[in-house]
Amino acid sequence: MANERVLTFHSGIVRDGLFGLQDEGVPIDDITKAAQTVLNNLDEQQRSKVCFHIDDPEWRSWSNPEFLLSDKGIRLDEIAPELRKYVLQVLKTALSPEGYQKALGAMRVNHFLGELVQSPTIMNEFSYNFALFGSPSTTRPWGFSFYGHHLCLNLFFYKSQIVCSPWFTGAEPNVIDGGPYKGTRILQNEETLGLRLMQDLPTEQQSKAQIYKLMNDPAMPHGRWNHDDQRHLCGAYRDNRIVPYEGILVSDMSSTQQDLVLAIVAEYLLYLPEKARQLRLDQVKKHLSETYWSWIGGFGDEDPFYYRIQSPVIIVEFDHHSGVFLSNAEPAKFHIHTLLRTPNRGDYGMALRPLAARLEQDYRWEGKR
User: Fold this and answer.
1) What is this structure's pTM?
2) Cis peptide before 27 (omega within 30 of 0)
3) Which of 52, 59, 125, 229 could be joined to 111 by an S-S link, Cβ 3.0–4.6 Å?
4) CA pair distance 24, 155, nearest whole angstrom
């Protein structure tokens, strides 16, 4: 069953051999210990909601709206503060320091939005679910999902190796202008670097990269835009989507522009610990001749826009959205969605699982709980 779960690209044919086992220096002892502490503090009912087989398809049912499409795991605003602290310690131990701060920023922005629209019980700093897949181990594959409004992280571990994919991070608005976290802002680097790259391209390349001039362009085929995802293609419940290449090849850009592409990718890899992040960035570099840059919308300083970087080993998307809770009917720069996928079975560590030490294949899905 595991091999059926793939995110494909271009033609729909999975390309094998892109991902291998390697030492990424992840502090697996500390991460496993933190996760085990959570398990040790769960009651029987909580444990039944949190613990899943590593092959359970529920791992793929994460989602980013404020309402839950799949209510699994424990929700942080419904548990004791001590247990919540243990869950956050798992996140802190697994992510880079910068990545953990980014996640906290998204959670705090969500809290700010809940206060703005007077819905604090629906959207707050801790309105996120946590579920484990497999048993925390230093030698066997396992992982966890942490998901809720505008923050969804799926992490897979095997020994000292980590996969953080798929993930989704968003904000509406993307800056807090009052309260204890005033000044918190997220996703500005992804925005600034993307616009800088597009503005730096020669006119001919800008024209080829800009696949649609308008954010909801009449030239778009049916289904290219939808109310929920708007322009992005690889969000929740899109695990097996075929995403054709669009735009221009990064290898046709100048060296300065290629450096900007890598700087953008580095921002999207921020959740990973330093060594793992560098190894992933090196992998992306090896495929620059197969990497595409595409753009939707204008590229003036005040224009909302969408962009995608896509290669055999990574897909990142950035999209300015119209308002959901705020009143802007058209896309605005203060409502942002970003996401990362690893094509060709990279998501959820699927490409690595057959390479790990052989495991008992005793799992049979009995249907939704």
Assistant:
1) 0.94
2) no
3) 125
4) 14
Q: Which tokens belong to 292?
A: 């595409």
Name the percent of the chain lying above pLDDT 70: 94
- Residue 2, pLDDT score: 35
SS3 per residue for 217-255: CCCCCCCCCECCCECCCCCCCCCCCEECCCCEEHHHCCH
Q: What is the CA radius of gyration of the chain?
A: 20
The H or E element containing residue 209 is: helix 203-209
| φ/ψ of residue 60, rounded to 5 | -85, 0
User: Alpha carbon of 244 to those of 11, 60, 171, 338: distances in Å?
Assistant: 7, 22, 27, 19
Q: What is the DSSP string of 85-125?
A: HHHHHHHHHHS-HHHHHHHHHHHHHHHHHHHHTT-TTTSST
Angstrom CA distances, 30 to 22, 53, 159, stand at 19, 22, 12
Nearest Cα to Cα of residue 34 among 111, 124, 153, 132: 132
Confidence at residue 362, expressed as pLDDT on a 0 to 100 scale: 65
pLDDT tens digits, one per residue of 328-368: 888 989 999 999 999 999 999 999 999 987 666 666 666 66
Extended strands (E) in the chain: 8-9, 51-52, 74-75, 128-133, 142-148, 151-158, 161-171, 210-212, 242-243, 248-249, 292-297, 305-310, 315-320, 336-341
Q: Tens digits of per-residue pLDDT, 153-190?
A: 999 999 999 999 999 999 999 999 999 999 999 999 99
